[in-house]
Amino acid sequence: MAPQAAAPISPGWEPQDGMATYAAPANQPAAAAAPIDGVESRAASPTRSGLTPGERAFEETRDDSYLDSVNWAVMVYKSRHQLVVYYKGRLYRTYHAVFGRSLQPGAKLYEGDRRTPEGVYTIVEKYPSRRWRWFLKLNYPNMLDRRRYDNLRDHQVLPVAGGHMVGAGGRIGIHGTDNPRLNRDDINWTTGCISVDNTDISELNRILPNGTVVIIRP
Fold first, then answer.
1. Beta strand 72-77 with 213-217: parallel, antiparallel or unpaired?
2. What structural domains does the chain harbor?
């Protein structure tokens, strides 16, 4: 199987407004790796026992449909510390995740509030990160986020920094961790992003195409 080509690293870049440990059970083999940007089809492989329905569907795929973002979906549950991946409508795998460190519940409102957004997003870009291994950028703020922010701005209830009201924020995504112990202990430590174990972010980067829908719930 051809490895996925790595995107170029932007020197010194790290997410500023955003920031599980998942181990597959012994009887649950990892899914086969698949290139996202490659052009060749997946090589046929024998179906193995102990797979989830989504993993089985993935292994049984004999064409390039696994490269189509419409066949993938991600559900994120902040209160459960879960990131759940579906392939062709079937459960692929559940990963452990941690989120923004704000003690206030609810959707992200503005830059620096340290909340993880809530709503419907898509993966718009993927690239390596020196600190987080991989960064899967989401299209935050979406239209609803902007409307919510504009309402707060119009009512002048946003914090002021440097003489100006703070912005809506950005650079929110899914990434790895530089402190796995915090992830293992369910400690929400990021400034707004979704953090998973480094092994998991490598797998998510490999299997999830740009354009994959990511729905974040409370």
1. parallel
2. 53-217 (2.40.440.10)
Bridge partner residues of 190 (DSSP): 100
> 0.90 cut: is pTM over it?
no
Phi, psi angle pair for 134, to nearest 5°:
-135, 150
- Alpha-carbon distances, residue 29 vs 2, 51, 163, 176, 207 (angstroms): 20, 7, 55, 21, 16
Q: Are strands 133-138 and 160-161 parallel, antiparallel or unpaired?
A: unpaired
The number of CA neighbours under 13 Å toward the Cβ of 11 is 0
pLDDT of 3 higher than 70: no
Token readout for 10 is 């932007």
pLDDT in tens, 91-144: 999 999 999 999 999 999 999 999 999 999 999 999 999 999 999 999 999 999
Cis link prior to 11 (omega < 30° from 0)? no
CB 197 within 8 A of CB 177: yes
pLDDT digits (tens, 9 = 90+) for 9-56: 333 333 444 433 333 333 333 333 333 333 333 444 445 669 999 999
CA 134 vs. chain centroid, Å, equals: 10
CA–CA separation, 87 and 71 (whole Å): 6
Q: How many whole angstroms separate alpha carbon 61 and alpha carbon 89?
A: 14
Mean pLDDT of 72-77: 98
* CA atoms of 147 and 163, how far apart (whole Å): 23
CB 192 within 8 A of CB 141: no
Percent with pLDDT over 70 in the chain:
78
CA separation for the pair 161, 181 (Å, rounded): 33
